[in-house]
Design a protein that fits this description.
This protein is mostly helical and about 80 residues long. It is about 80% helix and about 0% strand. The protein is elongated, with a radius of gyration of 17 Å. It is found in: Mitochondrion inner membrane.
């Protein structure tokens, strides 16, 4: 079986986002510091920091990296199934 269930897809997406947040922590912290105490002005005052967060996150969550994560998950799942059966 080379497809993912909805549950598997959601789990992979959550795990990948969590990894991306860990890897992009310095940018997330910089954005959070900029946004602290602001309301509406965060939109223009922290634009640069937000772009840095987005640029970092996309390395992990763009379609190509997500497809690689899916393929690796399927490969490992198939290995587990073949070794247990």
């Amino acid at each position: 079986m080379n497809s993912l269930s909805r549950r598997e897809e959601e789990t992979l997406l959550k795990a990948t986002k969590a990894t991306a947040l860990r890897e992009c922590d310095e940018f997330v912290k910089a954005f959070a510091e900029c946004a602290s105490g602001r309301t509406v002005s965060v939109a223009w005052e922290c634009r640069g920091q937000l772009k840095e967060v987005q640029d970092c996150m996309i390395q992990f969550t763009a379609p190509e990296p997500m497809e690689a994560v899916r393929k690796e998950y399927i490969r490992l799942r198939n290995l587990r199934q073949s070794s247990s059966g």
